[in-house]
Amino acid sequence: MDVHNVNIDISAVEPKQYPSNGYPEIALVGRSNVGKSSLTNVLINRNGYARTSNKPGKTQTLNFYNLDEKLFFVDIPGYGYAKISKAQRAKWGEMIETYLTTRKQLKGVVLLIDGRRAPSQDDLQMYEFLKYYDIPTLVLATKMDKTPKSKWNKEVSILNKTVDLNDGDEIQLFSALSKYGKEEVWKWIESKTGV
Ligand code: GTP
Ligand code: MG
After folding, report:
1. Span from the CA of 37 to the centroid of ligand 2 (angstroms)
2. Of all residues in the chain, what percent carry a pLDDT higher than 70?
3. Is 142 in the pocket of ligand 1 (CB under 6 A)?
4. 139-163 pLDDT, tens per residue?
5. Ligand 1 site, residue 115, Cβ cutoff 6 A
6. Where are the domains of the chain?
7. Which H, E and C letters describe the chain, residue by residue?
8. Nearest residue by C-alpha to atom 10 in ligand 1
9. pLDDT > 80? residue 126
């Protein structure tokens, strides 16, 4: 999809704040600082539209990006961020779980994993959660610009070994810096949403 108009429609923490126009939604999920906001910017061809930061925990609400009145990207706050209180963590967990398990418009999740290391326990747990709820998932190994191309096959085999892929789910390598994988991510999103 060639995106012309982007609006951040809504920052939501609970269902009554979710958008009501019924467009399909793709959620971006992953550890804090893994590159969800950077992926958004690459996919919509806007540098710096979704705010990125080298400090983890930048995104704290569900941010709905309205793309051409056709589709929403939902930027989900990252997990694995140590510097928050237990109460805050529980609140975030509930917000994310409620969205992922009840949202009818949700057509798929892009689960970002840092391509420089094996998936963490948090990553694997998140994937099992998505599988349990039968949410179509694209596992995206990102920051691949930091790994020499000669090691990319090894990265894919580590992912294949550690992530027990559900039928129909896929693994893709990506870099927000070089934009490697951008077309494949779009194709996957289009196949899940029909946009
Ligand atoms: P939270 O909002 O805290 O959950 O983080 P996020 O997942 O949205 O991460 P964000 O996009 O803000 O990126 C975090 C840092 O990683 C930033 O400094 C980005 O520039 C950097 N980054 C993201 N993607 C890539 C990538 O593909 N390659 C490289 N080299 N750096 C990246
Ligand atoms: Mg972010």
Report:
1. 4
2. 96
3. yes
4. 999 999 999 999 999 999 999 999 9
5. no
6. 6-193
7. CCCCCEEEEEEECCHHHCCCCCCCEEEEEEECCCCHHHHHHHHCCCCCCCCCCCCCCCCCCEEEEEECCCEEEEECCCECCCCCCHHHHHHHHHHHHHHHHHCCCEEEEEEEEECCCCCCHHHHHHHHHHHHCCCCEEEEEECHHHCCHHHHHHHHHHHHHHCCCCCCCEEEECCCCCCCCHHHHHHHHHHHHCC
8. 35
9. yes
Give residue-wise pLDDT tens across range 44-64: 998 887 777 777 666 678 999
Distance 29 CA to ligand 1 centre (A): 12
Atom in ligand 1 nearest the alpha carbon of residue 142: 27
> Is the Cβ atom of 40 under 6 angstroms away from ligand 1?
no
Query: Could you tell me the two tokens for 119?
Result: 């998936």
The atom number, within ligand 1, closest to the CA of 60 reads 2
- In ligand 1, the atom with minimum distance to the C-alpha of 81 is 3
> Where is pLDDT greater, at 137 or 77?
137
Between 58 and 84, name the one with better pLDDT.
Answer: 84
- Nearest ligand to residue 84 Cα: 1
| Residue 116 pLDDT | 92
Of the residues 38, 61, 65, 76, which should be mutated to test ligand 1's pocket, given the most ligand atoms within 8 Å of the CB?
Answer: 38
The CATH architecture to which 6-193 belongs is: 3-Layer(aba) Sandwich (3.40)
